Amino acid sequence: MAKKATSSKKATSKTKSAGRSSKSNIWIKIWRIIYISVISFFVLSLSWVLIYKYVNPPYTYLMCKRKAIQMISGEGSSNIHYKFVPYSQISDYLKLAVIASEDQKFPDHNGFDLVSIAKAMEKNKFTKKVKGASTISQQTAKNAFLWDGRNFIRKGLEAYFTFLIELIWGKKRILEVYLNIAEMGHLTFGAEATARTYFNKSAKKLTSSEAALIACSLPNPILFKVDNPTQFMLNRKTWIETQMINLGGINYIQSLK
């Protein structure tokens, strides 16, 4: 009987040990999957950013979304107007106008305007209308790699990609991509398509006034239409032109690297 009891205890001990070992193996597998997933994400995202340093984005999420919405509506053509052109083929006035309008600290910050972010967060405590403080770098990261929206996952990824493009691309490439893929009108993306559609000229030939008008549509090009500007837009256009002068004019653009 004593031998049977001892044998039973050993069997029970082995069973418990096997159970603990099985659970341990499961956690090892889970952590291995997490580790591989994280490493894969970093490698793929870094590769994506490196590719876009030299290769122009063929399309963006927002372009696909706008096209799909237009196709579903069945109202007119769903063709996207988009043509990527080199930095040198974009008017310096437009480069200056978007910086004056969207992000006057663009040449100096590392992708984030912490002062503006803090002010926006403070202001958002007292209003239901959320005020953003995204820099040109953040907007470029969102437009090139992500989807639209304000959830924490998307904003976290936006910060990550902003860090990468600031580190790898440099200011000129960031501004070049931004001006080529930003939505600027109905199914219209980028400086060249916008200049051709609304002004019947190339992006390089845009005047200071035309550039300021395009810039004031950027917060919401669906609402603020370049071809039918509201009084609010015209007032903002005047403000942008003043800011362009205050920044130092075209010479200000020469500081970008």
How much of the residues is beta strand, in percent? under 5%
Look at the structure and give the mean pLDDT: 88
Q: Which strands sit side by side, in order, in the main sheet?
A: 1-3-2
CATH class of the largest domain: Mainly Alpha
- Overall spatial form: globular
CATH architecture of the largest domain: Orthogonal Bundle
Number of helices: 10
CATH domain fold name of the largest domain: Penicillin binding protein transpeptidase fold
| Low-pLDDT ranges | none
Structural class: mainly alpha
Q: What's the CATH superfamily of the largest domain, by name? A: Biosynthetic peptidoglycan transglycosylase-like
In total, the number of strands is: 3
Q: What's the story with the biggest beta sheet?
A: 3 strands, mixed
Roughly what percent helix? Answer: 55-70%
Q: Would you list the SSEs in sequence order as H and E?
A: HHEHHHHHEEHHH
Taking Cα atoms only, what radius of gyration do you get, to the nearest Å? Answer: 26 Å
Instruction: Give the total of domains.
Output: 2
